[in-house]
């Protein structure tokens, strides 16, 4: 339980920092910072969901974010599994992204969709 509570606390802090980044003027530096904060926040989100599902006996240890997202959807922890998979794929693409157009598209998704999904899961945790 302690690990779950610590991870949830870290996720709440990361979420707040992501929200702060989105309030900045949309300069290249601010967008880059937002994308980095999003990567970190997403990692904490799926790992917190994993801890939550393990704590509640829904799953045993699993290593895949996709498996955790699928289990979280089946348990009603998240509402839209497809959007979470899309968020995971966006996060994964940021690791090898050098295309400004694609990074801007992901930034817009963070602002218009992913932030809401993260807020929603935080409320359920």
- N to C succession of SSEs: HHHHH
The overall average pLDDT, rounded, is 92
Given as residue ranges, the uncertain stretches (5+ residues, pLDDT < 50) are none
Molecular shape: globular
- Write down how many β-strands occur, each being a DSSP E stretch of 2 or more residues: 0
Please give the CATH architecture. Up-down Bundle
Please work out how many helical segments DSSP would assign: 5
CATH topology: Four Helix Bundle (Hemerythrin (Met), subunit A)
The portion of residues forming beta strands comes to under 5%
Helical content, roughly? over 70%
User: How far apart lie the N and C ends?
Assistant: 12 Å
| Largest β-sheet summary | none
Number of domains: 1
What would CATH call the class? Mainly Alpha
**Would you identify the CATH H-level superfamily?**
Nucleotidyltransferases  domain 2
Radius of gyration, in Å, reads 14 Å
Question: Helix/strand-derived class?
Answer: mainly alpha
Task: Name some characteristics of this structure.
mainly alpha; Four Helix Bundle (Hemerythrin (Met), subunit A); 78% helix
Task: Tell me what you see in this structure.
With 125 residues, the chain is mainly α. The protein has one domain (2-124): Four Helix Bundle (Hemerythrin (Met), subunit A) (Up-down Bundle), CATH 1.20.120.330. The chain has five helices and no strands. It has helices spanning 2-22, 28-55, 65-74, 81-94, 100-124. Helix 1 packs antiparallel against helix 2 (28-55), helix 2 (28-55) packs across helix 3 and helix 3 (65-74) runs antiparallel to helix 4 (81-94). The longest helix is centred in the N-terminal third of the chain and has 28 residues, at 28-55. The protein is globular and about 45 Å long.
């Amino acid at each position: 339980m302690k690990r779950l509570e610590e991870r949830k606390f870290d996720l709440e802090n990361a979420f707040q920092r992501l929200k702060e980044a989105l309030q900045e003027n949309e300069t290249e530096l601010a967008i880059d910072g937002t994308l980095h904060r999003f990567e970190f926040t997403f990692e904490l989100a799926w790992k917190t969901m994993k801890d939550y599902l393990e704590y509640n006996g829904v799953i045993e240890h699993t290593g895949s974010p996709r498996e955790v997202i699928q289990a979280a959807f089946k348990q009603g922890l998240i509402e839209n599994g497809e959007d979470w998979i899309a968020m995971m794929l966006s996060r994964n693409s940021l690791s090898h992204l050098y295309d400004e157009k694609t990074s801007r598209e992901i930034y817009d998704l963070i602002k218009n969709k992913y932030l809401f999904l993260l807020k929603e899961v935080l409320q359920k945790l």
